[in-house]
Write a structure and sequence with these properties.
Four Helix Bundle (Hemerythrin (Met), subunit A), single chain, 7 helices, plasmid, two-stranded antiparallel ribbon, globular, DinB-like
Length: 158
């Protein structure tokens, strides 16, 4: 498991640079383009990544490590979208905020002991899972949104 875990941690470490590479220099019309009416723009995806890093991904991991089998509340993305904070929506701010939040997350991950990785939490969407499984979901979440940004860019450039 440790080799797979290290690969997932490396993936988390590389997300910030992947985001910068994908979106640096994009104009507002590209950042705000939505391929479909009900899809998110690149700016919204970046804001979601910042908020999820701060309020969902890291917080769940911390609760799993510190509490005995915590009940983790589902995250309502549609409600988030309707009420999200747009005060730091400039591209540079979103990238900086994500970088700061990801560094904080990685600091916690790097301090975890082997015994921390087997601790578990419960969440209605995912059932019961370990910190190690949560790391997999976290890395997968990054991949989903990096692909989504790529797809938005491809649709914008058509």
């Amino acid at each position: 498991m440790a080799i797979a875990r290290e690969k997932l941690i490396t993936q988390l470490e590389q997300t910030t640079s992947a985001l910068v590479k994908l979106v640096s220099g994009l104009e507002d019309n590209a950042l705000d383009f939505k391929p479909e009416t009900d899809s998110w723009s690149i700016r919204e995806i970046l804001a979601h990544l910042v908020d999820d890093e701060m309020y969902v991904m890291r917080l769940r991991l911390v609760r799993i490590v510190r509490e005995d089998l915590p009940n983790l509340v589902p995250h309502d993305e549609k409600k988030w979208y309707l009420h999200r904070n747009t005060s730091r929506d400039k591209l540079e701010e979103l990238l900086e905020d994500f970088s700061i939040q990801r560094r904080a997350s990685l600091g916690i991950i790097q301090m975890m002991r082997e015994s921390d990785w087997i601790r578990e939490g419960i969440q209605p969407e995912y059932g019961q899972f370990s910190a190690e499984k949560w790391l997999e979901k976290w890395a997968g979440h990054d991949v989903v949104h990096l692909k989504q940004i790529n797809q938005n860019l491809a649709a914008f450039q058509k």
